[in-house]
Amino acid sequence: MTKRQKRMVAVGALVLGVGLAAALGFTAFRKNMMYFYTPSDLLTGKLAAGAALQLGGLVEKGSLKRGEGLAIEFVMSDCHNAVPVHYEGVLPDLFREGQGVIATGHMDAQNVFVASTILAKHDENYMPPNVAKAVGEVDGKHSCAPFKSVTTASSN
Amino acid sequence: MWTWFHQLASPPTFYRFADVLAPWLFGLAVLLIGVGVYGGLFLAPADYQQGDAFRIIYIHVPAAALSLSIYTLMAVAGGVALIWRMKLAEVAVVAAAPVGASFTALALVTGMLWGKPTWGAYWVWDARLTSELVLLFLYAGVIGLNQAYSDPRAGARACAWLALVGVINVPIVHFSVTWWNSLHQGASILSVEGIRNPKISGDMLWPLLVSLGGFYLFFGAVWLRRMQNEVLWRERNARWAQQMVAA
């Protein structure tokens, strides 16, 4: 083998090795890479009861109820399971029914998720309002695909 | 064809070639970025959800795309530099790093400015944002490593190794939104589905594509100029370089 071929092997082995290590590492730590859990994860009972966590899903249509002041209640769904959420505070502009949101908080004794912050999760669709109207309800454009279950091995 | 490549790899030939090419790339880049940004800010309609806030994509998306492309380019040039010991490939690696770092920083800053009104937070530690920040650190590492060597060839080769190790982060940044749950949304254009049927309406898409083209050409122009500087510095004792400076 010439010196050049040896260097070629070294470079190839490095890239493959790092790639393999990353693939193994990230497969093992898949759970830790997840920014939020889904309502399905919460209801399987595999998570510690009352643990502080981030929960992501869609605001179910027709579930939003405004209480006194800034208090709101709504149902967060990942198309398989749903969890009631209670929140009191400022909401991002994009918050609405049918919108993907991520809430930080914990499940209380009455099985209501009490949130301390709510972030809006935007989706990858961009269109002018008249097109959005023609496509149909805003709700119809949102999908549950971005909300992957953490506790089940691989569900997309 | 091959002889032309070999000739181009010689510093004086490259220097003159870049001198001719760079102004054209720069002029075209200014034109395309101008058209793209004008189209994005004035001609494209407001988004049905975000209103005018979405218009940051005409800067954010090209900057983010370049941050990944430039690192990939550095890894490829790094491989060539290590295997074939090609001087011009070494120059290509070290000249690209500061430009890549700038675009990464621009992508992060524009993303944060958009994130606050849209998501409700400037920063979260989700997979996309974190891996893009790691990319910025990788660029900083390449820049720092290059500065740490007094011998430019040894420095460039160390940078090439780091570029090759770090290139694993590029697919991680791109697929982070597919593999894991993240706050950042998925890809509108560069996904299996998006390529066939972009998830962004046509009158918003064309200024983005024009702006993307302009940013890439701009990078090309800046990269060539930086490579010229690096070549001139490395060859400062050569007769052609002294003649070039004297002229």
Descriptive notes:
- The complex is a heterodimer of chains A (156) and B (247).
- With 156 residues, chain A is of the alpha+beta class.
- Chain A has helices at 3-28, 30-33, 39-43, 129-135, 138-141; strands at residues 53-59, 65-66, 71-77, 82-88, 100-107, 113-121.
- Chain A folds into two domains: 1-33; 35-141, Nucleic acid-binding proteins (OB fold (Dihydrolipoamide Acetyltransferase, E2P), Beta Barrel), CATH 2.40.50.
- In chain A, strand 5 and strand 6 (113-121) form a beta hairpin.
- Chain A starts with a helix and ends in a 15-residue tail after the last helix.
- The model of chain A has no long low-confidence stretch (mean pLDDT 87).
- Chain B has 247 residues and is mainly α.
- Chain B has a single domain (19-45, 55-246), classed as Four Helix Bundle (Hemerythrin (Met), subunit A) (Up-down Bundle), CATH 1.20.120.
- Helix content of chain B is 79%, strand content 0%.
- In chain B, helix 2 (11-43) runs antiparallel to helix 9 (202-234) and helix 4 (87-118) runs antiparallel to helix 5 (127-148).
- The interface between A and B is large, with 47 and 44 residues.
